[in-house]
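SEQUENCE WITH STRUCTURE:
===
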Amino acid sequence: MPKDQKEKLTHFDHKGNAIMVDVSEKDITGRFAAAEGTIKVNEKVMAAILSGAAAKGDVLGVARIAGIMGTKKNSDLIPLCHIVPLSACTLDFETDRETLSIRAICTAKTDGKTGVEMEALTGVSIALLTIYDMCKAMDRGMVISNIRLLEKSGGRSGHYRASPGSITEGKI
């Protein structure tokens, strides 16, 4: 494929109208994506989350379920995304008392004609927003940041992995 075609925006037709990309000619392949994001909280929030003392309950447990549910609703939230039947999804958290931050990592898998990057990114976003929602009574100054794709595989565009030295230093 010529470079200029590869870099062409795929969600627009020749007239500039928004379209859903036609994937009917693509091969069904195994596809995987991982995404991450962080939320910075205050000491009170971190203590409540880690001790299970948050008024609204198990913050990370609820955020995990919300994030996974978000991956399954991605096509309802992002215009022009395809409905993707997920074969697997995980959502995990890493807490850091020193930096008062929580890192969410979402993975998604499918066997299909289109990738699952948006599903993984949506899962992370919804999980972090859920943490904010469940803890906002203790801290409205929480900051959600660094949401990004860590890795994707499958399909024509091949394998992508975030470069070392970046936010996660290539760790998944």
